[in-house]
């Protein structure tokens, strides 16, 4: 009898992990209404019509980016978020946990030249940025300039940190 080894499909594995371990939060309290979410989607070939769709990045002059339907990272992988001042303005800094750092490093190592489309819900859902992957991102830190006012950026970051605190309070020994 012949057996065939199936190729390891990282994207399939990521989809399973997201489906099994997704973080959800209902809006049952004032705290719940202040939480934010963040989703990082990988840019893909527009020919992948069944697993992708185009999204508008930047509100002033939208750039259409075709992204995978399933995000490869989201707020459950974030350990800390902060607003960082830079000479030209401000950025959002995301610090990922061990699993998120591993995913970010592997995805960016294999997809140089593509974009990471970043969407947040705060409570408005909006595509914030689509930085181009210039190389492998090691260390688990991603910084980007959001298409958002400073007030909105602070709202997103405060909501993400509230989401992180809530997740840590509700986790059972993990």
Task: Set out the fold topology.
Layout (H helix, E strand, L loop, with lengths): L9 H12 L8 H5 L2 E6 L9 E6 L5 E6 L4 E2 L3 E9 L2 E8 L1 H13 L5 E6 L3 E5 L11 E4 L5 H21 L4
Antiparallel strand pairs: 1-4, 1-7, 2-3, 5-6, 6-9, 7-8
Silhouette: globular
Helix content: 25-40%
Looking at the structure, the CATH topology is Gyrase A, domain 2
Determine the strand fraction and express it as a percent band.
Answer: 25-35%
Question: Tally of extended strands?
Answer: 9
Domains, number: 1
- Per DSSP, the total helix count is 4
CATH class: Alpha Beta
Placed side by side, the strands forming the largest sheet appear as: 4-1-7-8
Class by SSE composition: alpha+beta
Low-confidence stretches: 1-27
CATH architecture verdict: 2-Layer Sandwich
Order of helices and strands: HHEEEEEEHEEEH
- Rg measurement, Å: 17 Å
What is the typical, i.e. mean, pLDDT?
Answer: 85
Q: Ends: how far apart?
A: 43 Å
Task: Please give the largest β-sheet.
Answer: 4 strands, antiparallel
């Amino acid at each position: 009898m012949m057996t065939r080894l199936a190729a390891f499909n990282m994207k399939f594995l990521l989809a399973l992990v997201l489906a099994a371990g997704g973080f959800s939060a209902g809006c049952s309290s004032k705290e719940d209404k202040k939480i934010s979410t963040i989703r990082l989607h990988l840019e893909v070939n527009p020919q992948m019509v069944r697993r992708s769709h185009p999204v508008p990045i930047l509100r002033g002059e939208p750039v259409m980016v075709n992204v995978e339907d399933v995000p490869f990272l989201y707020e459950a992988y974030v350990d800390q978020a902060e607003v960082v001042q830079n000479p030209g303005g401000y950025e959002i800094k995301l610090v990922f946990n061990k699993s998120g750092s591993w995913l970010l490093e592997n995805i960016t190592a294999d997809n140089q030249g593509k974009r990471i489309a970043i969407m947040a819900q705060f409570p408005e859902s909006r595509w914030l940025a689509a930085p181009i992957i210039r190389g492998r991102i090691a260390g688990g830190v991603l910084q980007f300039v959001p298409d958002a006012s400073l007030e909105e950026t602070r709202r997103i970051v405060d909501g993400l940190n509230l989401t992180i605190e809530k997740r840590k309070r509700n986790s059972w020994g993990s």
